[in-house]
């Protein structure tokens, strides 16, 4: 049976029609310096250290069928990220909820990608090394929901490449548990994968253990066990959701340290991300997945993820106008 065509449901089936919105918010809405503005007009000051030095942390929460998914989990993770990077969020938790809801309400999108982040702001004129002198800045925006892999790619399964040229930055350099602007290893590994004719990449640590992928966590299934790295990766919210789905389909969960050879011997492989949910992998390094069982568990969890979300699972409804 074909996978749930989430992109088609969102954009062409007419099932989730866009709500009323002002014409200036056609492309999306941003929030900065206390105001809501058209997304294409929003720009970060060039001297903001978020831009200059990747000095920031952020999060992305999605909305589908007019409901945020696991909003409180995203806000928790963001708070942890601010603490890890010693950032002071100028907005309270309740204000954050209101900003996120206002963005989606103003955009009218029923399926949306909501980004919010805090940077350390401008360098102080006096002592640049005093963390307390910085005035952190908050930015946020909403655009239509984004997929790492469209309906066709998810149906076929991504062609995954284990990066040969890059490793994931070690956790004692930039802690991946705080969502951060350090994307160079991820991006270069993606370009490397594309150069070799693959769709997406996965990065290892210095010892050859699995870490994560650009914008996604990695899972594999072997003999009824579902496995994902414990360290060296973001504690993804879709990963968290997958832990629940794995239980529902009868898989035993193992969160640990896995050498890349375990991936090569896997029965099924998939990625998880707010940008597209559960994303099946069809080949690794150009070879079909070992003992491919048609990605049976992955496909079930993929469909469960969407049907449950659209039925309100961990959902917070948006109050549209
Ligand atoms: C580096 C990285 N790993 C994993 C993920 C997946 O996390 P989530 O499921 O919360 O989107 C992301 C999300 O963008 C990411 O940037």
TrEMBL record:
One MF term in the entry's GO annotations: transaminase activity
Asked if the Swiss-Prot or TrEMBL record annotates the protein with the keyword NAD, the reply is no
- Entry-linked InterPro entries: Aminotrans_IV, Aminotransferase-like, BCAT-like_C, BCAT-like_N, Class-IV_PLP-Dep_Aminotrnsfr
Task: Keywords in alphabetical order, please.
Answer: Aminotransferase, Transferase
As its record notes, the protein acts as a catalyst of:
L-leucine + 2-oxoglutarate = 4-methyl-2-oxopentanoate + L-glutamate; L-valine + 2-oxoglutarate = 3-methyl-2-oxobutanoate + L-glutamate; L-isoleucine + 2-oxoglutarate = (S)-3-methyl-2-oxopentanoate + L-glutamate
The EC number on file is 2.6.1.42
Top-level enzyme category: transferase
Q: Which SUPFAM superfamilies match?
A: D-aminoacid aminotransferase-like PLP-dependent enzymes
What pathway is this protein said to act in by its record?
Amino-acid biosynthesis; L-leucine biosynthesis; L-leucine from 3-methyl-2-oxobutanoate: step 4/4; Amino-acid biosynthesis; L-isoleucine biosynthesis; L-isoleucine from 2-oxobutanoate: step 4/4; Amino-acid biosynthesis; L-valine biosynthesis; L-valine from pyruvate: step 4/4
Function as written in the Swiss-Prot or TrEMBL entry: Acts on leucine, isoleucine and valine.
Annotated family: Belongs to the class-IV pyridoxal-phosphate-dependent aminotransferase family.
What is the designated name of this protein?
Answer: branched-chain-amino-acid transaminase
């Amino acid at each position: 049976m074909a996978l749930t065509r989430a992109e088609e449901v969102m954009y062409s089936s007419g099932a989730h029609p866009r709500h009323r919105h002002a014409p200036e918010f056609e492309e999306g809405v941003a929030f900065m310096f206390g105001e809501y503005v058209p997304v294409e007009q929003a720009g970060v000051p060039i001297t903001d250290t978020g831009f200059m030095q990747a000095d920031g942390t952020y999060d992305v929460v999605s909305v589908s069928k007019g409901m945020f998914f696991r909003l409180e989990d995203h806000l928790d993770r963001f708070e942890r990220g601010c603490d890890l990077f010693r950032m002071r969020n100028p907005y309270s938790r309740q204000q954050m909820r209101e900003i996120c809801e206002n963005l989606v309400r103003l955009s009218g999108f029923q399926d949306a990608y909501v980004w919010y982040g805090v940077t350390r702001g401008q360098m102080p004129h006096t002592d640049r090394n005093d963390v307390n002198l910085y005035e952190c800045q908050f930015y946020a925006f909403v655009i239509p929901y984004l997929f790492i892999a469209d309906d066709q790619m998810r149906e076929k399964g991504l062609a995954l490449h284990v990066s040969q040229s890059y490793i994931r930055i070690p956790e004692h350099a930039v802690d991946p548990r705080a969502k951060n602007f350090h994307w160079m290893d991820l991006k270069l590994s993606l370009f490397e994968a594309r150069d070799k004719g693959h769709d997406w990449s996965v990065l290892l640590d210095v010892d050859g253990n699995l870490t994560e992928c650009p914008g996604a966590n990695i899972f594999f299934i072997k003999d009824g066990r579902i496995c994902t790295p414990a360290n060296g990766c973001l504690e993804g919210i879709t990963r968290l959701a997958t832990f629940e789905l794995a239980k529902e389909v009868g898989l035993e969960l193992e969160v640990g340290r896995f050498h890349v050879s375990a991936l090569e011997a896997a029965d099924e492989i998939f990625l998880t991300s707010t940008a597209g949910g559960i994303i099946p992998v069809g080949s690794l390094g150009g070879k079909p997945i070992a003992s491919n069982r048609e990605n049976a568990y992955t496909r079930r969890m993929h469909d469960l993820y969407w049907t449950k979300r659209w039925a309100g699972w961990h959902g917070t409804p948006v109050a549209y106008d």
